[in-house]
Design brief:
Layout lengths: L7 E3 L22 E3 L5 E3 L6 E7 L27 H8 L13 E5 L2 E2 L2 E7 L7 E2 L2 E5 L4 E5 L11 E7 L9 E8 L4 E3 L3 E3 L13 H11 L8 E9 L1 E7 L17 E7 L6 E10 L4 E3 L7 E10 L4 E10 L7 H7 L4 E3 L3 E8 L2 E10 L4 E10 L8 E2 L3 E2 L1 E5 L2 H9 L9 E3 L2 E5 L10 E8 L10 E9 L5 E4 L3 E2 L10 E8 L7 E11 L8 E7 L1
Antiparallel strand pairs: 1-35, 2-3, 4-11, 4-13, 5-6, 5-12, 7-11, 8-9, 9-10, 10-23, 12-14, 15-18, 16-17, 18-23, 19-22, 20-21, 20-24, 24-25, 26-31, 27-31, 28-30, 29-30, 31-35, 32-33, 32-34, 32-36, 36-37
């Protein structure tokens, strides 16, 4: 057996705080479980908190024309020709306006000035919304991922501000305009409006009727398709709630919540709630790039259908990513004059709620011309509220700092971030169906549900083992390892994120298994997931 020290390294970051939160001024209620008309609990983020991202520049004058001293060192890393061409473009841009305060901003919602209750000058890296080699773009129905080549197209350094406010309660289907201004400064905001859903059911996809019919037909056909699609479906009994903490006395003038008071808390479902199923769909189109400006009607469509064992349709979900979906700030527009290709998404993550049972999930991806599909069997187990339980195991993820969730919320709030982020010690795991890289560690995420954690002092451990499926030999066995470093005080969910070194394993197929145990003498069943090393 290969020594354990050659395989396991653990992420060591501080756990999230999950203190009790109170509502923001003007908000109706703190995050909580809501009952639908069918009596099944669902979980969601604050319904009225709006966050908007604004970039602000100083006006450039003739004296400062060509001054690039404001460009941070390393900002041009990865650009062709060492960034020389891009630097010429940035020299024409006005410098960022850093160090502004809430009093410098005017925020209008439907023309009415709003009281800022959250403000932060965001210190995001110069490569903008990329995380590693991925760019992640949230919508109200899921998260799209675009794999960038090299370091991708660098984003211009900027002064980025996250601004929050609570508008009057919107009605279903209402659209509100957003205006942000700073006197004597050019301002770009990431969105100009937000709309509340007429139908709160995230399974309802806004696909064109004719294309939806073609995708549904293709899902049941035997045609090979020009788009390669793979998918995974993973079950959890928890949900996340992004909450705005108010710890500033109301008597103070224009209180502003510090950025650290935005907390992403994890709540466990009760035994009657539907299981949260995280769905990751990865696909490869016949082309990798879109031209700029975008070709007419260029878009990617995803449609998922979940069938019961008797063949009846249980639910469906989907989304559209249009080439021109996101507006670019002035710096990006200038850069596009030199970089005239845009990456095409190849990943879509979302989630649905399912009752316990046996299902088949069919996923179809199309660009309106080409089609591809995948079928995934799905077994959803019920939660025993009194038992020590382990969730499904996520293998191979995009890993990023959990602080990015606030920026994700700035694209969709007051709608919740979907899918619920999988977070362990301030590290977010975004599932990817592809095989893990052969020259890097295997990321592993799972959750332990310990009912005794909120009443009695109990020590929880987990065991991890890997079996070579060809030989049947055990190539790794950790034995019982303490989960204490991952425990979130007051929460029965223990989210654990690991990096397991598999670089020395030979090519082949493997099974990874996880089991939890506690000091009360209880053990969970083994949870398993398979992976291959090419």
């Amino acid at each position: 057996m290969i020594p354990l020290s050659a395989f396991v390294c653990l992420a060591l970051l501080l756990p999230l705080a999950v203190d009790a939160q109170t509502p923001a001024d003007g908000d109706d209620k703190a995050p909580q479980t809501a009952n639908s008309t069918t009596g099944i609990p669902t979980f969601y983020a604050h319904a009225r908190q709006v966050i908007v991202e604004a970039e602000v520049w100083n006006h450039a004058d003739k004296k400062s024309a060509g001054d690039a001293s404001w460009i941070p060192e390393g900002a041009l890393t990865g650009a062709p020709d060492g960034g020389a061409r891009l630097k010429k473009v940035l020299n024409l841009m006005p410098p960022p306006a850093r160090g502004l305060t809430p009093g410098d901003f005017h925020v209008l919602d439907n023309g009415v000035e709003q009281k800022i209750n959250y403000f932060s000058e965001a210190d995001f890296p110069a490569v903008g919304t990329t995380t590693g080699f991925w760019r992640l773009d949230p919508t109200t129905r899921g998260m799209w991922g675009t794999l960038l080549f090299g370091s991708g197209m660098p984003h211009a350094p900027s002064a980025t501000y996250l601004i929050g406010y609570v508008p009057p309660a919107p009605q279903p289907g209402d659209c509100h305009t957003i205006q942000v201004s700073v006197e004597a400064h050019p301002v770009w905001v990431n969105r100009r409006e937000y709309c509340t859903m007429k139908n709160s059911d995230p399974a309802t996809a806004p696909l064109e009727i004719k294309l939806r019919a073609r995708m549904q037909e293709f899902a049941s056909s035997s045609a090979p398709g020009a788009i390669k699609v793979s998918a995974s479906a993973l079950a959890f009994w928890s949900s996340g709630v992004l909450s705005l903490a108010r710890r500033v006395p109301p008597a103070e003038v224009a209180p502003v919540t510090p950025a650290t008071d935005f907390t992403y808390a994890v709540e466990v479902h009760d035994s009657k709630a539907p299981t949260t199923v995280q769905i990751a769909t990865q696909f490869t189109l016949p082309y990798l790039l879109w031209n700029a400006p975008c070709p007419k009607n260029a878009a990617i469509y995803v449609l998922g259908m979940v069938f019961r064992a008797n063949g009846e349709l249980e639910t469906q979900f989907g989304d559209i990513f249009r080439c021109d979906k996101w507006t670019s700030n002035p710096a990006e527009e200038a850069i596009k004059k030199f970089y005239v290709k845009a990456g095409v998404p190849s990943l879509f993550d979302t989630q649905i709620g399912l009752r316990p049972g046996e299902y088949e999930m069919r996923l179809v991806v199309s660009d309106g011309k080409n089609f591809g599909r995948a079928q995934v069997p799905l077994r959803v187990q019920s939660l025993d509220a009194e038992a020590l339980t382990v969730s499904d195991v996520v293998l191979n993820s995009i890993i990023r700092d959990a602080s990015w969730i606030i920026r994700d919320a700035a694209k969709v709030a007051p709608d919740p971030v979907i899918p619920t982020p999988l977070i362990s010690k301030k590290v977010q795991f975004v599932p990817v169906p592809a095989h893990p890289p052969k020259d890097g560690p295997l990321s592993v995420y799972f959750e332990i549900y310990e009912p005794l954690a909120d009443t009695d002092k109990v020590d929880v451990s987990y065991s991890l083992k890997i079996t070579d499926l060809k030989t049947g030999s055990l190539v790794m066995n950790t034995g019982a390892m303490s989960a204490a470093d991952w425990v979130v005080p007051g929460n029965v969910v223990i989210p654990i994120g690991l990096k397991v070194a598999i670089e020395k394993l030979p090519p082949g197929s493997y099974r990874l298994e996880i089991r939890a145990s506690d000091s009360a003498g209880r053990q969970s069943e083994w949870r398993q997931a398979s992976f291959a090393i090419k």
